[in-house]
Amino acid sequence: MTTGASHPLPARSGPRIGVLGSYGGFNIGDESILSCVLGCLRSLRPDARLVVFSRNAEHTRAHHHAADQVLDWEGVSLNHVLDTLASLDLLVLGGGGILYDGEARRYLRLVRAAQERGVRTFAYAVGAGPLREPDDRAAVRSVLAEMDDVVVRDEESRLVLEEVGLERDVVVTADPALLLRPEPFTDAMMRDEGVPTDARLVGMSVREPGRAAEKLDEGDYHALLADVADFLVRRLDAHVVFLPMERHDVRHAHAVLSHMTAPDQGRILHGSYSPGQVLGFMRHLDLAVGMRLHFVIFAALSGLPVLPLPYSGKVFDFARRTGAPALVGVAREQAGLLLAEVDRLWDEFPQRRDALHARVRELRATATQTCERCGDLLDDIDGGRSASAPEPADLTVPSAGSLSV
After folding, report:
1. pLDDT of residue 328
2. Residue 24 lies inside a defined structural domain of this protein
3. Which domain holds residue 139?
4. Are residues 174 and 187 both part of a single domain?
5. 244-291 pLDDT, tens digit each
6. SS in 3 state form for 46-86?
7. Are residues 148 and 172 in the same domain?
8. Whether this model's pTM surpasses 0.70
9. CA distance 191 to 188
């Protein structure tokens, strides 16, 4: 028996449910999703045996104690993984953005193996795109067509699947991390990071340029973001705190900080924090500007004015659903437009606050629908013998585990 718990496991007489995704401590957003998916499954079937297929089983065992068993699925004997798949009653794919070029076929190979062994399969608010590679497109068309239910987290993903040629009903809900519960980020933790507790704070999330800044070299890209950070320092008399949501983000945060004219007003979080603690940290902020989807989601959950910097369709889609400004590109000639948008966001937010809160409540309710659909499938599998219909609030789960940034 493979677990990360130091205490004996309770007997599990319910269904065996596998969870497959980009888990293992690589990204705070993915870890927050896993916490919420496991919370959903445990609320639906308290006696279920939950098996997580992880890209780093050691990390997942240590930080997600709701899982009864954790297996590596990369770089290991395929036979062991297949034997475990065959023992499942249900395999949950996702959530998170895993159906994209170069990765989709790898995840769907395991889903197909489960299907061939008679295991029911469910796509849990997954994200899709870009999908241009023929092998990935073919895998999506064939494997998702045979899944028992396919739920995506945004309209963009549904359109991607439609363009690929998937011919089946696809349900759009919302990102599972919308149900994450904040954990305390104390004043002592703030002091350990060198972040003032008596100053206005702006959070920033930066990552590699990617499609957001295709016409900029990396140096110009970092300089542009530094201009935004300096503007925030001057305009709001604020300190800027960079929140790396993935390990690679640290390098880009340092590069932006090095281009700032007021680097003494900037800090980078370096500690190892759980997703819930990162969400708790957002409660200390006054404004958020960033690129990572889950940074934007955490800001919205915290009721902050947030400017999503353009990076991908999933960020644009979430901005649209929350009523946040949605920019379409980053270029040096757009620096003035970007700064003007930040200025307008700050000035107008008092009038927008109630609307944001209402939209976030609606999105959280929508996110619970994924769990409800999964519950319907479990009822079909086991007749609902151990099900207890959860209230939406019951699906809001604390996060477990940390990501070293």
Report:
1. 58
2. yes
3. 16-179+365-404
4. no
5. 999 999 999 999 999 999 999 999 999 999 999 999 999 999 999 999
6. CCCEEEEEECCHHHHHHHCCCCCEEEECCCCCHHHHHHHHH
7. yes
8. yes
9. 5
